[in-house]
Amino acid sequence: MILLIDSYDSFTNNLANLLEVNAGQKVVTIRNDSFEPETYEEFFHSYLPLFEYVVVGPGPGHPSIESDVGIISWLFRRYRDNPDLTAVPILGICLGFQSLCYEFGNEVSRLTQVKHGQVYEIHPISEDTILGDGTFKSVRYHSLYVENLNDSIIPLAHCYETDGKKILMAVKHKELPFYGVQYHPESICSSNGDCLISNFTNMANVYNQKFRPEALGINLTNLPKGLIEDHAISEKSLISDGLFADTTKKQDISLKKFQLGSGILPIDICEHLYKKNKRANFILLNSASIPGEWSIIGFPIDNETEVITHSLDEASAVKSSSYGSHESTKIELKDGQTPWKYISDKMATKFISRDRIKKTLGNYHSRNLPFFGGYLGLISYEEGQHILLDKLEPISSTPTPDLKLAFITRFMIYDHLTNDWFVVSIRENDAEWVESFSEEAAGIEKVDIDSIPFTVADLCEEADKVSIQYDFPSQSIYKDQFEKCQEYLHSGDSYELCLTTQLKISLPSYIQPWDIYKVLTLRKNPSPFSCFMEFDDCVLISSSPERFLSWKDDNEGKKLVELRPIKGTVRNTPDVDINAATEILKTPKEMGENLMIVDLIRHDLFEFAQDVQVSQLMSVEEYKTVFQLVSVIQGKNIKPGYSGIDVLHKSLPPGSMTGAPKKRSVELLQQIESMQSSGPRRGIYSGVVGYWSVTDDADWSVIIRSTFRYTNDKANKAGNDTWRIGAGGAITVLSDLEGEWEEMKIKLSSALQAFK
Ligand SMILES: C=C(O[C@@H]1C=C(C(=O)O)C=C[C@H]1O)C(=O)O
Ligand SMILES: NC(=O)CC[C@H](N)C(=O)O
Hints:
Elements: E1 2-6, H1 12-23, E2 27-31, H2 40-47, E3 53-56, H3 66-69, H4 71-81, E4 90-93, H5 95-103, E5 107-124, E6 136-147, E7 153-160, E8 166-173, E9 178-181, H6 193-211, H7 213-216, E10 254-259, H8 266-277, E11 283-286, E12 294-298, E13 306-310, E14 317-322, E15 328-332, H9 339-348, H10 354-361, E16 374-379, H11 381-389, E17 403-408, E18 410-415, E19 420-425, H12 431-442, E20 469-470, H13 475-490, E21 496-507, H14 513-524, E22 529-534, E23 538-544, E24 547-553, E25 559-563, E26 566-571, H15 578-585, H16 588-606, E27 609-622, E28 626-638, H17 644-651, E29 659-660, H18 662-673, E30 688-693, E31 698-702, E32 706-710, H19 711-716, E33 721-731, H20 737-752
Bound molecules: ligand ISJ and glutamine.
Glutamine is lined by residues 58-61, 94-95, 141-144, 492.
């Protein structure tokens, strides 16, 4: 077994995988604070001897700061101060490498040119070939570096900055079996990581045979129960373990498939319903532009459809209400139960197997309908943040929803590839509704695009137009925030921070949200993941370009998870075509931003997928207002027991909205974003919206380039109608203040331009 000590990094699971594959051994991961200082000796005598070697992983912070490295510095010192002890072989990566050098008396200083997500040529010094023969390319993620080595540590490799300065990239201890590398062998863009691990494993093996033969004969089955597991990072218990095992439950299915003439789109169906009912009592996930494949319209039923709300302001309860009703039942969550468990338990009774659907529908172009009833709704950024930080605390005095899911039983699906429409109900005996609604749909006409105004201002009374107001984020505070980010990026606390801001727009009178949706998505910012949903306490209008996570069957009926982070942005103007944009985007700054999130997502996926692949690395995609760099990461061979809700729960908040490493960056952002008057709470912005289907499929997009409102806000400004827009971007050491401010403004304008 190998012991991996993690320092709350976002690349640790990538390293664990590299070790498992190339050392062929089980990897046990603990945190640098998994043992309390008073049990360090116990760790040393009872735990450490169980392992063939130790890998000390990367992480935020500085090796001299006790709270950043915990047991790591103690371990190196234990050997330094007792040179006669037989040591366990140790391989340090980045922070681990720096700790090794630091504890053996070397200086760790700040780089003048900080490198995060940058590919460099590594030049080994020839006499030790542990890194592999010859030069190779590897990724650097560091703010700190080791200089002026004393003679206890021997240099093994360097790289060169553009100004020719030599930076230390690998070392070994003069006598002890300790090695370290400054670069990241586990990154998707690194080569020779496999070689380092197999060479180190061989070295450790030879060493152990000679000095620690007992470490090679450990019989895992004879160890006292819990000895390993009690300290290892546990796979948090699954929310829905085994929920989908029972396929005998019979849920009624009524379904009709047809085509509608003259290019009828989801927007036309919704507009028809809106005019007929004088309200927008539908939930629309609309993919009417590339790369859309399906659109979904959910029809909540008044006084029947359950809507579940969770607010972090009242963290230990969920509210259950019926759609259209102002009354709700408060359900106290007891014994550590979470809203997620509550949702999942409800779903358990509704499962529909793909086999049953096939019986109803036949083999539909060998494709699966994405959604077959289930939850449609949104989850705030803070709901995800609280899962990550594992603490639930009230955060403000005016409650706003952090999780809002409606259980949908009647819906329509549009297949953009074939133009087929489906009307489906999974209510009992609902064939009649399916029949009559299908007939109604046949008579629906196209929206007259020319009748849709170009801005929300055009929807206001003439005299009111001038009084649409918004308070733009303060540029001088943004400057302070940017500088604070730079300070953390230079001190090694973060590698990338997604800094965001918000503004509030105050409308002089109430404008129907559905009318705003049409302006935004038809006139201003068409997008592949647009959505509309109106609840009693919040409304979301999104024109997001970014898929967060989809969870569906692959061709062999096994689950496949896919994430599609966007990172790297260039404004789309008439003088910038895709070639010019590619030239700007394929630079170290933009590619570094994207690479960091790709590596972070690989780490997140390894939590539940045994096979993680990057199927698209940094392609350039064009949107109406911007060009973006987009990557696709897939997880296959999912560990047993996981469902769509577990996968989402383990991956929030979206890494592209936090930066890396995720935990430290989230904590820092909370502090930095509180500097603006809009405060630290992002709310619905930068959360996720989508569905979890009764077939256990899911698809969630990131809530950006969108606008939302809380009903509460209205009460604050008498008579006015308040909408919010958030925007931001990744800050790295290569960012410049002006450029980031402009990028943030462009992103704000994606939704803001719809208003004025
Ligand atoms: C934060 C936003 O966008 C995020 C940041 C991006 C970037 O830094 O390049 C790109 C897409 C999103 O992941 C936003 O639109 O508000
Ligand atoms: N990736 C890392 O381990 C980084 C180590 C350290 N925090 C630095 O920035 O240099």
